[in-house]
Amino acid sequence: MKNIIQKLNKVFDNHKRLGIMSLLMVNDWVTFKTFKEEIAGITDGNLASHLNTLEKNKFIEVRKNFVGRKPQTSYAATSEGRKAFSDHLDALEELLKAR
């Protein structure tokens, strides 16, 4: 069991980051606004902090552009992020089956 727990990625320990990555796994790009709508109870600052953590770990990439005259920030999972998240989910599954 100890072996399985070591496979879990600490970056995904937080349930907000799990939510962020879950949304990114099923969407090509997700806007900051969409994260705010989909992740219950998250503030702008808290969301920005979690996104920053994922970006520092190279799990997401950021795209900034304008829609009309308004700035829009979007995020996508990198191939490294997709693999890390899939490996984390695999370890969780393995942990549940190890009982």
What is this entry, summarized?
This protein has 99 residues and is α+β, with helices and mostly antiparallel strands. The protein has 5 helices and 3 strands; from the N terminus they run H-H-E-H-H-E-E-H. A 3-stranded antiparallel beta sheet has the order 1-3-2.
Instruction: Return the CATH class.
Output: Mainly Alpha
Mean pLDDT: 95
**DSSP strand count:** 3
Number of domains: 1
* Overall 3D form: elongated
Describe this structure in words.
- This protein has 99 residues and is α+β, with helices and mostly antiparallel strands.
- The chain has one domain: Orthogonal Bundle (Arc Repressor Mutant, subunit A).
- Helices cover 58% and strands 18% of the residues.
- It is built from 5 helices and 3 strands; from the N terminus they run H-H-E-H-H-E-E-H.
- The protein has helices spanning 2-7, 15-26, 32-38, 44-56, 79-97, and strands at residues 30-31, 60-67, 70-77.
- It has a 3-stranded antiparallel beta sheet with strand order 1-3-2.
- The longest helix has 19 residues, at 79-97.
- The protein starts with a helix and ends with a helix.
- The mean pLDDT is 95.
